[in-house]
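Hello forum,

I keep getting stuck at the same step: I have a sequence, I want structure tokens, and every attempt I make locally crashes halfway through. Rather than fight my setup again tonight, could one of you with a working pipeline run this one for me? It's a single chain of 629 residues.
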Amino acid sequence: MRFVLAIVAFVVAAVMIVAGIAQRTVFAPPSHIEAATSVSGDPRYLVIDGSVLNAHPGQQTLNVTGAPDQAKQVVAYGRTADMKAWLEDQKYVAVGYKKTTGALTTKTVTPKPAKGSDDKGGDAGSSTATPAPTPAPTATPSAGASSSGTGTAAQAAGPNPAGSDLWLEEFDGEAAQVTRMNIPDDVSVIVASDGQKAAPSQVTVTWPVDSSTPWAFPLIIGGLILLVIGIALYLWGLYTHRRSRGPRRKSGPKMPKLPKAPKYKPTAMIETTPRGRRSTRARVMLPAALIGALALTGCTAGTDAATTPTKTATPLTTEAPDAKDQLPPAVTVPQLERIVKRISESAAQADAKASADLAKARFTGPALQLRQANYAIRAKKADEPALPAIPASPIVLSLPQATDAWPRTVAAVIQTPKDAKGTAQAPLALTLVQATPRDNYQVEYAVSLEPKAKVPNLAPASIGSAVVPPDSKLLALPPAKVAAAYGDILMNGDKSQYASLFNAEGDTLRTQVGAEWKAKQKAAVPATASLTFTGAPGVGTDVAMATNDSGAIVWTDLTETQTLKVVEAGAEVSAGATAAALTGVPSSKTGIESTFGYQLAFYVPPAGSDAKITLLGFAQGMIGAKQIP
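Reply #2:
Ran it on my machine without issues. Output:
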């Protein structure tokens, strides 16, 4: 028997070991699924929808090759709606996936003509909403037409996707050749060069496959264990067999058999248990009666508990907001961090060269106006301090607008590093605006927060905030009227009709350039001249973003003009070093008109609230000066 068991153990062990090894070799599953396609026609852009990349589970690996210039190839991904808005008037190739064959497909998408376009008899897809820029004609067009990415293709050149603030992530150059990502269905990938040359023509998408073999190792180990057991059984059987074949002694005479005892037969008097159908019926009746008694007892004892109603907790069901009805935030936090870093680098270059042209790339409105004036002053006044630099990080607060349209607004508060003396600096609050899908975010307001400023509760960055209309009557003061009201306070102080609406505590700008300061300036002017102040709303857009208490944070700007005028013939007034740098004259016999710009950030409470409008931060500086004719 031991030999039989040993043979069975050997056979089962061999089967298990072979099966385990086969799972790791012959029957091993593939490590990945791959789908590829070749794009013809030299398109400028390829778009891979998120549903294509999610055709199989797992992290996607995108491999692109065949670009005319590998250094200029770009792979970026962003929200599908944003990407279509960026492409708008551009022809592109949409890459799809056919599940039946497991292959990638391509389809050329031609933009529709803009409404009201003059398209007489032409193809509806041949006209674009915005004419694509065309390079200047070359002396040898035929030579350019023969090369890849030039000639006829160059005439269809479009915008360059590299460096766009619209993308959630971007890969350029060699880094774009192989990219790994894990994106949802509502995000798409764009593959392109610089908009002038053709996009990479070879696209391969790879998905990982679970190639693990969890039974291989247990089968091999179990087979080895059975093999050892089989060997042990074989050796044991062999040992026992050899011992059984040794010398044997002859047995003696057999013992006589003992007589058998008579069998016991019970008598009828001892048998007390009745037999037959009656006995069976009696045995069944006793348990049935017992069960019935117990059932009746249970009903009687449990009457109160069974008839008394008990309260059960009913789960409260709350309907979650439909994701389709909720607008997405304009940017994500990682996206905003990348945008702020780019703005910081661009601003540093513009500040270092004092170049107004470089500043236009990332500044607009009041922020650009103040920076241009500062560059002009520093060019002729060496001791004029530069404006605060834009820190790259860390972002301590981000408030994107919840929207899917343009223009888009994003607010961010950045922690400012300590100065050279180790003194802590006030955080910098930026208001960024993106005018169109192809424009990058620009700084419209850059203010330093007040030391005692308390920012109200805001919506999380993952949800975003709504923009309040400038004429909204749901606030204590419509956003469009905040600048004029505050300007009146700076002119008249507590006598202003709006003084009761604004909080004076912690307002350092009011102490710097308020009514008391203006009165001192007027008193210091000689009798031969006069000084007047006038205020007006600035050139910036009033931006208001809702807070959680139904209030709003309002960004606005105010201009204030100081007119120093000569009132006595032969008299002369000094322009001052700063105004002289802009006017080019140190003094004037007629007068000097200086204009100051104030970028302001307020918290405006909701209508009917007892809270007051509070100044959260500001930035100020001279933005213009001229000599009175």
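The mean pLDDT is 82. If your local run keeps crashing, start a new thread with the error log.
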